[in-house]
């Protein structure tokens, strides 16, 4: 079984994000076209406490340009380069982390779910946080998107994520793999013929990321897939049955 490789050891050297002395593209501290720097804040499900919001406000009050909230429910802090160090220190002191930008799991999207939405069948925001703890910093073949909806109304467009989960009755989730939301040819993921119990969601996702990484490495090494394949590329090559098998195995474990 493939074990996920994770990292959260990196530095901002005043010029760029570095890991082991070299430039690193995984972490969301990125220069923008206009010269302003963007800091992506890890906020699974798009949730911030009052205290965390105050930290973002403090960073903005100290020369920040603006906050941009993205499609993936995370705030991007736009700050001048000479304010990046201070902003990162304030985020860390407040228990906030930088989100990934490339080669890992992007900020996890979730609808309000049970406890907030009257239609919900399953809780989503706590689950998004749990998944994030398991996959934060995972090194993957390329960007990976996970989305959760608390019921089949599917407000989080879970079918257009690499892994999408949709709440069903009796503590289970429908799972879909290989969706894609961006570009001019969006793809609906394949809905698997197996439901995932709430307590199995995290181990199932970890197994799926491992299989994706293993197969992507194999296909890339043989030249059958170009560098940085997304999950839908790998599923198209390997067949979805391999992925169904590991989900089934983990659900029955
Ligand atoms: S997907 Fe369902 S639970 Fe989530 S916000 Fe929409 S209606 Fe509510």
TrEMBL record:
Keywords: 4Fe-4S, Heme, Iron, Iron-sulfur, Metal-binding, Oxidoreductase. Residues 104-252 form the Nitrite/sulphite reductase 4Fe-4S domain. InterPro entries: NIR_SIR_4Fe-4S, Nit/Sulf_reduc_fer-like_dom_sf, NO2/SO3_Rdtase_4Fe4S_dom, NO2/SO3_Rdtase_4Fe4S_sf, NO2/SO3_Rdtase_FeS/sirohaem_BS. The keyword Iron applies. The keyword Iron-sulfur applies. This is Nitrite/sulphite reductase 4Fe-4S domain-containing protein.
